[in-house]
Design brief:
Length: 161
């Protein structure tokens, strides 16, 4: 089972492909998509959607896990992230990749056992769970891995495996 984890954003979107085989989780690929603030919003959304489509074509994940918007102090940021999520959700749907959404609280709970864990705690757990040499950078990439890990753990509870 291959999972595409996505931490949505307009400036930076983290992504990760994890594969579970016989109970072992392996990182296949991960990274981030960066867009230029000089480009129009529509151009940035198209770039993110095109890159997600390419990742799907290259790695062929069966399911995706994307961070849901739970709470934002800054309305402008929430709108931008919502636009980016919309473009990604549309791309995932068009590419027939099953979509699952998780709040930051759910991701933190699944990864650390504590829903209010600090970002660094989540990043260290990502590194340890996958036996990585270092924490993936930027933070959005580590977050995307955490979202994918959250889904792999949640699949058992949802009886999807």
């Amino acid at each position: 089972m291959k999972i595409l984890g996505i931490d949505p954003g307009t400036a930076t979107t983290g992504w990760a492909i994890l594969e579970e085989k016989k109970g072992e989780i392996m990182p296949i690929a991960y990274g981030h998509i960066s867009t230029s603030p000089d480009d129009s919003t529509s151009m940035r959304l198209k770039e993110v959607a095109d890159d997600i489509e390419k990742i799907i074509q290259d790695y062929k994940p069966q399911e995706s896990a994307i961070e849901d918007i739970f709470f934002f102090k800054n309305v402008k940021t929430a709108v931008k992230v919502s636009q980016s999520r919309g473009a990604m959700l549309l791309t995932l749907e068009k590419m027939s990749v099953k979509i699952f959404e998780y709040t930051p609280l759910q991701v933190k709970q699944a990864i650390t056992g504590y829903g209010r864990a600090e970002k660094m705690q989540v990043q260290l757990m990502v590194k340890n769970i996958l036996n990585l040499k270092q924490i993936p950078k930027p933070d959005d990439t580590a977050d995307a891995i955490a979202i994918a890990l959250c889904h792999l753990q949640s699949r058992k509870l949802l009886n999807l495996c």
